[in-house]
Design brief:
2% strand
Length: 440
């Protein structure tokens, strides 16, 4: 029975050794003790009984701190689980301190391990200590060391945590120099830009990296350190030298939008680059408005239509198409304006009243369609306008249109009769039933 247990112990130790490198003591008694402790630990750890695993871990680390990195990897998992599952503040602090101590012991006993995992330690430390003002400088220093050791190859979320910590440090006046915050921002941005490029080269999604980049930009913007003068002085000249730099364009766009300096030509150019590199509804709609205000109507319509294609939200889609209809009307393209007005009403029925009124107004004001040969035929378009106003539930304008209907005398004089179908040409291109002016 004793032999069977020893063989089982040896087998379990061998399996563990195959998965991780172990440095067993040369002394046979010490080795036997180390193997036994590891087997006892591994047995309960494998069953998910982390509480039962803790005493064995503590004894291994105390007696054989250089046994294997697997000891510390598993120990971190055990105490992180404890941290996660307790709501007692004192216990959380105890477990957090234990985790940081495990990282340090791992570094002390295994050369090169610090460079491997210091970025993970820094992110763990942030989560455990960011609320503790007294730990602020310590955390900043840890992030600095992580970047010094790992550079841009650090785990891609590192910059998110560092920039967040820099924000706390600035608010707490641990960092008092604006330039220091900007230096940290530049470091985090360089890192995430590198990681985005790396993911693209590997054909992988960059959604998570891009979200981190946006977070870092927002954190800086929230501190109000970057104003329009900063953008104009430091970023715009660089963008003018390199207008194809999409990342720089994104930075200019974000800071200028936050700072309220969106009227400059450089902002529009940056926004166009942002849209071309990463088309989004909001940017496309903004550019549509910008070019519309500059009376560059073709570009305005183009961006509104592109924006409409980029959203599945019917309210947003209808809003963009409505702007195209309004722009076509401004340009005198009434048939096109009607087409887009009807599209907008179809996409977003809440726009129906407004769009039908717009069409009715265009029909009502289309004096250019009168052929000056028949009062009845020229005034038939007012019946068309009236019908659109009725669809729009616009009773005031419907009554106004009725006042322009053909007079009964003109109907008889021209040999026509009420109820007769009349064709309305020009851009309107529809038929209506002839109706006399109400007061007659």
């Amino acid at each position: 029975m004793k032999l069977k247990a020893l063989l089982l112990t040896a087998f379990l130790v061998l399996c563990s050794s195959l998965q991780a490198q172990f440095f067993w003591p040369e002394n046979p008694e010490k080795r036997s003790e180390a193997e036994t402790l590891w087997t006892l630990f591994d047995d309960v750890y494998g069953q998910g009984d982390y509480e039962a695993a803790k005493p064995h871990l503590n004894e291994i680390i105390e007696k054989f701190p250089g046994l294997s990195t697997a000891v510390y990897i598993n120990a971190l998992k055990v105490w992180k689980d404890s941290y996660k599952n307790t709501k007692v503040v004192a216990e959380k602090k105890e477990y957090a301190d234990k985790i940081m101590d495990l990282y340090q012991k791992r570094y002390d006993n295994f050369e090169g391990e610090k460079k491997k995992v210091i970025d993970r330690q820094a992110m763990d430390a942030f989560q455990y200590y960011y609320k503790d003002k007294s730990k602020t400088q310590e955390l900043i220093d840890l992030f600095e060391e992580a970047y010094a050791l790992k550079g841009n190859d650090a785990y891609y979320p590192l910059g998110r945590y560092y920039m967040n910590m820099a924000t706390f440090a600035y608010v707490r006046k641990v960092i008092t120099d604006d330039d220091e915050v900007l230096r940290i921002y530049d470091r985090c941005t360089e890192h995430i830009d590198y990681q985005i490029a790396k993911a693209k080269d590997a054909g992988k999604s960059t959604n998570r990296q891009v979200a981190i980049k946006e977070f870092v930009d927002k954190k800086l913007a929230d501190l109000k350190l970057v104003d329009c003068d900063f953008v104009v002085t430091k970023l715009v000249p660089e963008f003018e030298q390199n207008p194809d730099n999409a990342e720089l364009a994104n930075k200019i766009f974000a800071f200028a939008f936050e700072g309220g300096c969106t009227d400059a030509d450089w902002f529009v150019k940056a926004a166009e680059k942002v849209f071309s590199s990463n088309p989004q509804y909001g940017v496309g709609y903004l550019l549509g408005v910008k070019f519309g205000s500059e009376k560059d109507f073709d570009k305005s319509k183009d961006y509104f239509l592109k924006a409409a294609e980029l959203t599945e939200d019917n309210t947003d889609k209808g809003k963009a198409i409505k702007q195209v209809a309004a722009t076509e009307r401004i340009q005198g393209n009434k048939a096109e304006a009607r087409k887009y007005a009807l599209q907008a009403a179809e996409v977003d029925p809440t726009l129906s009243d407004e769009m039908y009124t717009l069409i009715g107004d265009m029909v009502l004001g289309s004096d250019e369609c009168d052929n000056k040969k028949s009062q009845v035929e020229d005034r038939a378009r007012f019946i068309v306008a009236h019908d659109y106003y009725v669809k729009a539930k616009n009773n005031t304008k419907a009554a106004q249109a009725r006042g322009y209907f053909p007079a009964i005398g003109d109907i008889f004089t021209e040999g026509k009769e009420e109820g007769q179908s009349i064709r309305v040409g020009c851009w309107i291109q529809t038929s209506v039933k002839l109706v006399r002016r109400p007061e007659q």
